[in-house]
Amino acid sequence: QATYANNAFGIGGAAIAGSTNHQINISGMVTGAGTYQLGPLTGVIATYAEGSSSGGISVTPFAIKSGTLVIDQIDAGGAKGSFSFTAQESGSSGPGRTVSITEGTFDVTF
């Protein structure tokens, strides 16, 4: 899924590996092709979560610690680029394991 209007950009996707569902969403204000830092104070944010349906439904949220969105091409018809980030599990028991997404890509139409 993807959207772009008035410089507001958003992409999202999910993949299943075994019994685990991985979900990534990236959204924020972009002014065109370029490199954007991901974070709560940068204007472009990312979310990552893992879910499992084995033995009931559970979702584990992660907090994005650092990352980058690179938009190589964007116009009214679509966008291409890449992203990477490091996220830390943010469950109720305190900080947990760290996940690194190193080679995320997108090629979407609007």
Shape, principal axes of CA atoms: globular
Q: Would you tell me the structural class of the helices and strands?
A: mainly beta
Instruction: State the total count of DSSP E strands.
Output: 8
What number is the mean pLDDT?
A: 89
Tell me the distance between the termini.
Answer: 8 Å
Compressed to H and E, one letter per element, the order equals EEEEEEEE
Structure description:
This protein is an all-beta fold and 110 residues long. It has no helices and 8 strands. The chain has strands at 2-5, 8-17, 20-29, 34-37, 44-52, 58-75, 78-91, 94-109. A hairpin with a 5-residue loop joins β5 and β6 (58-75).
Short description:
With 110 residues, this protein is mostly beta strands. It has strands at residues 2-5, 8-17, 20-29, 34-37, 44-52, 58-75, 78-91, 94-109.
Write the topology of this structure.
Elements lengths: L1 E4 L2 E10 L2 E10 L4 E4 L6 E9 L5 E18 L2 E14 L2 E16 L1
Task: State the main characteristics.
single chain, 110 residues, mainly beta, eight-stranded antiparallel beta sheet, 8 strands, 0% helix, globular
